[in-house]
Fold this protein.
Amino acid sequence: MPRTKGLRLAVVAVAALAATGLMPVQPASAATVTVDNATAGQFTASANWGTSTWSSQRFGADYRFATPNTTTSDAAWFRMNLPATGAYLVEVWYPANAGYNSATPYLVATTTGNQTVAVDQRINGGRWVSLGTFTLAAGDRNVIGVSRWTNAAGYVIADAVRVTSASTPAFSLPVPYSALPRSEYDDPHHDYPAIDLPVPTGTPAYAVRAGTVVRINDTSCGLGINLTGTDNAVYTYCHLSAWSVAHGAAVGPGQQLGLTGNTGNSTGPHLHFGIRTGTTRRCPQPFLLAIYDGLTPPAATSLPTTGCFYTTLGTPETPLG
């Protein structure tokens, strides 16, 4: 959906996120397992992966690199011995460079199979970067991989990873908490219930609750997702630049669904977000404000259908999703 905030969009976007890509995170808590590519017995890679000490942003003494490959994964794997099955925050460390890969595939071996998260390794280097929260199994096994299977150009990097035991929240904001001030979650939409969140291209888009993914790809929504929640409401994400989950995937709250962008009927980078129960469009603002404030959001069926959009913008637009 086109944005109507003009200059305000650009100002908020720049202030919220100076760079695109996955957001840096704060230091982990004590219940953390960290593995470097040089950790004995806990990292494996084929001879196609080289070793370098060139970048000062490396985690330890060195890091591993490989050229992309469009026919095979040839993943480098980090092995961990996790004490219990449960929810873990997964973070990665890599040196960044403008010549590195813009869509490096990280593989997370969850209890329901491998999940792939694409990371732009041109930015956010030399710090821990979150892939999201995943359910991981107890035991000693390969947990996080870095795949060479990408169409993007530039070296893929495998340096270090860590996981931290975490309680799984029931709800999540659709973008990182630090990306926007609270006031952005109270803004009206064009002429039907929805909201446009002004974030730069490449900002992670997260599942607001557990549900099942249906991918969208059309001229209006662009690359998008309809997330059918466990409450049977549909949560719509539009104008993504990339998907991070497969069609039909079951996801948990806070799991990355894609990266925001400017695809479809859009006049500037932002995330269009909507909520629908049956054929009824609902105002997402009260839902998002509650999550921002750390409260349990109202049920989708109780959300208002008016009071969250302009009514004098001329020809009505067709709702997205």
